[in-house]
Structure formats: structure tokens, C-alpha cells
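Example record used in the benchmark description.
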Amino acid sequence: MALYDSADTSLDTGASLLAADPAADAELARRGEEFVAALWGRGWQPADVVRVVRRELGDAPVCLLAELIRAQAPRDRVRGRRWRDQLAQLDEVLADAPPRPDRFSHATAVLELYRLLLRLPALEPLQDAPPHRSGRTNTAGASGGSGGSGSSGGRMLARIRALLLKAEATGFPEEAEALSAKAQELMAKHSVDEALLDAAAPAPDAPGACRIGVEPPYEQAKAVLLDAVASANHCRAVWNEPFCFSTVVGFEADLEVVELLYTSLLVQAQSAMTRAEAAQRAGGRKRTKTFRQSFLAAYAHRVGTRLAEAAGSQVTDALLPVLASREVAVTAAADRLFPDTVSTRLRGVSDEAGWTEGARAADRAQMRSRSRLPSE
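Model output (C-alpha cells):
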């Protein structure tokens, strides 16, 4: 009853009974693994559940969840590369797990976790995009859960990651712009190469989907930024506000660069916003929530405009039919997953200084288009 009753008294009673009976530990763990398996059947993935548990319950129960997921994994069916990447990330959580508390505290945390898992609703089921052809194999990525597509694609994505990491680390806006511009060139070439490969294949790949966390604060502006990155890279993004993620639908090569570019731009935006706030405080203004919200909203809007310009400059007449076919496939896949979507108005954008500084930051961080793509 403690799992299905929201009262604190039943939680305390259940935890006391479990703490007094060590023989119940095995059954408690077995039930937890059943709850995890049931979540997979309702469309959840490991990273999704970790985000919700961390937001609702804190870091300590995430370790309990990671133990359950890892214990259940050997009995699970074969999953795709993104799923395996998410399981690998749980190893880092377990490596930093704190010592187990007393039995009563542990039992209380377990019951709170199980209560949360049981009330999570069903989500749209996702699957990885099919693996690439021509003898290429998918490999686990080195950053952010993103993978490479075989030898040539893997080298390309490694170069993109390295450029974006340098752009994030530098304190010089001009250098960040140049590094980001080079990364966008490689991203465009990577996407074009994959599109042409699919066009030449007898049976083109189908779109897949992945979920990308969109965490508070200022999650609306972050969701707009992710949507802009997805649209510029031939993908569709649908935001799930209650559970803090967006589902991105697209072809595998494009999904990979969306993950990379969104993460990098978010890091650059945070760094630029910190510098802009410091300048505002030096002028006598206190930090405000509206400044940050307006900053990120303007950043997302301006990034979207410039990404669209950069993407459009790479389209040739020969590529138009290929991209049109892929866009139809992506739109159809997104509509199947999300037949009923609504638009959301961005709230809290009222600070003129924040908007101005955010637009300037996007101009510095975003990529310039190039008339000619470099060879790899």
C-alpha cells in the first residue's frame, strides 16, 4: 500500500517494515526491476527517467535508479546504439554513488523512487534510426552520447566535436566564431554526404528519433534554440515541457549534428550571458530573471535565422530533390509520433537590454556560411 498511497504516514510505515526485515531486500529489488521494465514498455528510455528522478527527488535516488536499470539490462531485449550509450552513462553515476545510508533512510528513498516510477505516464515509443550502409558500423561517441557513423563519418564527427569544444573554451568571441563557422561547414558537408549516399542506395534509410534534455531554468528559450538547430539540420523537434525534453525526428547523421550543435550553442550562450550580466552589474544593474530570459530568447531567435541562412547556402539544384524526399519522410515520421501538437508562446521576454545582448552573442557565436565546402 505504501507504493500507491501518497500519504507520508504510509511511506514511513512501509519503510519501517522494510528496514526491520532484511529478508525483504531481494523482493524489493525484484519489484524495482519489474517497474523499470514496465517503463520501457511505456516508451521511456534510461536518460528520460534519470532526468525526471533527478528533478523530482534529487541526486541520491538517481543512484538507486541506475542500480535497478543496470540489474534489469541483462534480461532486456537488444536495443540500439543510443540506448547503449545511455546505459554506459549510468556507469559514471554509479562510480560516484555515495555510501548507503541506514536501512530506514534507504527504504524510504526506495519507496519514494518506486512511487514516482509507477505514476509516470506512457510516452511515444522511439527507436534508433537504421544503421548506415556501405560497410559502415555505428560506434559509441566520446561526448554527449553521440556516436559516429563508421570510419569516415566517425572522423568527421570527431573533428566537429573538437572544433565545438574549442569554441566553448575560448574567451575570445572572434575565435569562437571562426571555430563555430568551421564546425558548421563540416556539419553541412556531413549532412550532404549522407543525403547523397541515401539517394544512391537501393533502399534509403528511414528517419529515427531521439530525446534531448531541455532543462530548467529558461527551458522555453532553450526549446526554441533546439527547434532552430533541428530545423536547420533537416529535423523536426517537439517539446515535452512537463518532462523536460524535446523529441527530435530525423535521419541519423542529422540527429548526431543536432545533438552536438545544440549542446555547444547552449554552453556558448551560458558563457556569453554570464559576461553580459557582469557588464550590466558593473553599470549598476542587479541581476534579473527577465534579463536572462530575454537574453536566451534573442539568442535562440538570432541563431535560428543565421542557421537557416547557412543551411540554405549549401543547397544546390542537384541536392534539392534529395532533401525534399528526406523532408517528406521526416515530416511523416514526426506526424505519426505526434499527431496532435500545439504552439506555445514564449513568455517573459520583456527586457530590452537582455534581448540586445542575446542577439549580439548569437552573432558572435553563430557560423558564417561559406560559398564552398572544404574537403575532409
